[in-house]
């Protein structure tokens, strides 16, 4: 699954620290702007308790979780759309991802410099969003100039011109492109524009350790939630957790009054933001979680395992995880009538435990 989510924000907000904790990729993380130049790419594990239960049922040789591809993109600055701070390069990196995780600095620490001198999360969010909108305006203006010239003599181009003007008006109002209601006939053009503000966004509010567990009382979190989904994390604490042996992490979280780490919540939120769900496979050799896009039909889901599986798909043997969990084994699930045979038109569901039947 090639989908990826880009981590963006101002310099020195904790992007690379979070990225390293999620992916163990070892990206540079230092207390100065533009520590990251080239984007770092890493895979973050999507923790799923269903895999633990399937491992009990199948006793496999190995267990393979789903992963999300994260791209740590260098910090954006004011006038990035004009090329400031290597802005053109960084904006191009954002264009290549499918969704955005916007890290917002919400902690105060005099030892960690802020590019604007003081901590003001909402100002920082506005600055980044404005830069992305201005970059999109440049994209739309270039396209509109060409189309408007042709539309004077070619009537078939006039509907395209009208849509581009609609997009331009939205951006000029300071609204992101994702606020536009895209009609079926204009959807191909909208996708072709590849606008930065059309991408879905998730906010990661990077707070100090003292604010963990109190996010609902933080005014900045409440105001960020008016803009989209927010996950509260502490990059400093998450870096500590990531350095611990796996068996000690649960005790540490419990001592802090937390059920799961902020990074686990962030990774799961990113997974949902990308429109991903999970089907599961199980056997003696491996229990595995497979990400798929919502709405995927069975043959295409089989093709995620191997392209030949899609070509030679016959049918899918499917049982809901909840039913298999309750029955305790595939044999018991079959005897209880909970295992179904599904054909080519079956739309996969999150938590389906599947065995694909394919021809030679």
Provide key terms for this protein.
360 residues; 12 strands; 14 helices; three-stranded mixed beta sheet; flat; alpha/beta; 40% helix
Mean pLDDT: 87
Question: Helical element count?
Answer: 14
Low-confidence stretches: 25-37
Major sheet: size, sense and barrel closure?
Answer: 6 strands, mixed
State the oligomer. single chain
Structural class: alpha/beta
Describe this structure in words.
- By secondary structure, the protein is of the alpha/beta class.
- It has 14 helices and 12 strands.
- The protein has helices spanning 15-23, 49-58, 87-95, 121-151, 158-172, 187-193, 219-225, 235-242, 246-255, 262-273, 298-305, 307-311, 321-327, 330-335; strands spanning 4-8, 40-46, 62-64, 66-72, 99-105, 201-206, 229-233, 276-281, 286-293, 313-320, 340-342, 352-358.
- The chain has a 6-stranded mixed sheet with strand order 2-4-1-5-6-7, sandwiched between helices. A 3-stranded mixed sheet has the order 3-9-8, with helices on both faces. Strands 11-10-12 form a 3-stranded antiparallel sheet.
- A hairpin with a 4-residue loop joins β8 (276-281) and β9 (286-293).
- 35% of the residues are buried.
